[in-house]
Amino acid sequence: MNSSSNKLIVLAIYLCYVINHCHGFNPFAKTVVTITNNISPQAVLRVSCKSKDDDLGEHVLSSGQRFQWKFRPSVFRVTLFFCRFAWNNQVKRFDVYTPSRDQGHCITCNWSIMADRLCLSGNLDKYYDRCYQWK
Prior knowledge:
Layout: H1 3-22, E1 31-37, E2 45-50, E3 55-61, E4 66-71, E5 81-87, E6 90-97, H2 99-102, E7 106-113, E8 117-123, E9 130-133
Parallel strand pairs: 1-7
Antiparallel strand pairs: 1-4, 2-3, 2-5, 5-6, 7-8, 8-9
């Protein structure tokens, strides 16, 4: 490959990085997801999270405790993490990271788990901070 082809490739990679970075997505940055038990002072929350490739195991959280992990989202926008939440006699499931909702908006995704809903905060644009009712 000649020198001008190498320069063109480097320029294309640089422009792709700059364009994506300016729109909130850095392909080299890790995303951090945090799950916090805010159900009630007495409730113990059991959390099991997975992706297609990773099983993060079960974590037992007392009130106010957190569970956190880091990952690099796929540039192909296919990364998905889902969790099972269990407390008292309740069992709920939710996709805590989906590319359509989170990629480019959520670098630090903070989930507050409550008895009637879960809330996401930490987005680059506060417009995307929101709560979801359990189904």
